[in-house]
User: Fold this.
Amino acid sequence: MSVDQPRVAALVRELIEAIGEDPARPGLVGTPDRVAASYAEFFAGVGEDPAAPLAHTISVAHGPAPETEPSGAVILRDIQFRSTCEHHLLSFLGIAHIAYLPGSAVVGLGALPKVVDILAARPQVQERLGEQIADTIATALAARGVLVVLDASHQCVTARGGRQPLASTITVAARGALSEPAARSEIIALIARGGDPGTDPR
Assistant:
């Protein structure tokens, strides 16, 4: 399902009139079409299958000898995302950290940000977004455990109401073995280390 851009543009013209402005004045003439094009990007994930990027997996157990069994977590930190709060249609921007314990297969690391992008590109709340990312990865990869940490700044908090420009929201979604407090805390500690790969944090 794609965004009906002509319909969005017509509704934006009405909105401009409703706030007391003139959609025909030079500064606003192109605004309805620009907003419609933006909405097509912001909501491109509506109706899309978030598991599609995870369809091609790589066997962990089978490959060049010796064969092995998966053990530790795969962690991808600092995935930038943008979404739209469904309550005010204002943006929230943030960072996603994803960890999973593979079953018999892993997925290319570039697939994980695509899952985030698809699920973020629809009207959302942060709490649901994290849960949907975790469910998608857990199901599509038959992962033994999944942990998703989102840290985002919401315009509905920073730009309206209480106007708290420095406030951010952190949510955690966990599945399987990573729902256990000890396992979860170990992964969160690794995520929090930050820095360049291979850098000694001491």
Observations:
- The radius of gyration is 21 Å.
- The chain has two domains: 5-42, 55-193.
- The first helix runs from residue 5 to 18.
